[in-house]
Amino acid sequence: MAHRPVDEQTEEDGSHLVEDRRPNQAVDDVPYDPQDLCHTAPSSLKYETRAMAPLILNRYTVVSALGKGLDETYRALRSRRSALRPCDFEDVGITTYIGRVDGVEAVRVGGGSAATGLEQFDCRNNRLALLGLQQDGFLQTAIEARERYGAHRVAVILGSSTSGILETEHADRHRDPATGALPSSYLASHRYSHNMFSAAHFVRTYLGLRGPAMVISTACSSSAKAFATAARLKRLRTWSDSWPPRRPTVTPAK
């Protein structure tokens, strides 16, 4: 059967590609061609090529243990400052180092928004989301998008692997000793904290939006999936703007 290369690589790149593999070993069930020094696919396999418009980011920011906002992050990277420190998270008795965002405990999830009932969203994960909104003019840009396109045409797409799991850990410590039941206060607040949709629900409510909202949870790929989903929504020509960050979390409190 005739074969053709999957992609055009230089001979040098092809050599590096196969040097780490055993003779006649295929990658992903694709035949290995030792003469062409690249992996090939049957010529009968059809490829669909389609130009994809770039996803333009008119505002971006970052909040992590390195700092809040682009400037703090840049200075930390330039000075090669580590964001790790001895574990001082609540009563975690582990001798280790963690990356912890400073100032999260002082954040009020209801501050700075005209929306009501935001206090029910209070959890560490949503405080981190609010910190992100407050950096580098991101909040103002989101509001401008809402005013320009309409609240129903601005989407919120987040990636999170833990949501507000810390609230569940706290509740688990306070189970009823006789029945094992979780505290009634936690049962009432779960949908606004540890529920996987909580972060998007909070951001959507905080910004006064009515467009699509979702949280993607695919572990470490959540961030990439959020941007890919935002790009697909843009291609639908239905939604004018979307916000696709990934939610950071603190370790070891997972």
Rough outline: globular
Largest sheet: 3 strands, antiparallel
Kindly report how far apart the N and C termini lie. 52 Å
Q: How many E-type strands?
A: 10
Measured by DSSP, the beta-strand proportion falls in 5-15%
Count every helix, treating DSSP H or I runs of 4 or more residues as helices. Answer: 8
Q: CATH architecture of the largest domain, please?
A: 3-Layer(aba) Sandwich
**Average pLDDT rating:** 79
Q: And the CATH topology of the largest domain? A: Peroxisomal Thiolase, Chain A, domain 1
Give me the secondary-structure category: alpha/beta
CATH superfamily of the largest domain: Thiolase/Chalcone synthase
CATH class of the largest domain, named Alpha Beta
The H-and-E topology, N to C, reads as EHEEEEHEEHHEHHHEHE
Strand and helix layout:
Elements: E1 3-5, H1 11-19, E2 32-33, E3 38-42, E4 63-64, E5 67-68, H2 70-78, E6 84-86, E7 97-99, H3 124-133, H4 138-149, E8 154-159, H5 165-173, H6 184-189, H7 198-207, E9 213-216, H8 222-235, E10 241-243
Parallel strand pairs: 8-9, 8-10
Antiparallel strand pairs: 1-3, 2-3, 4-5, 6-7
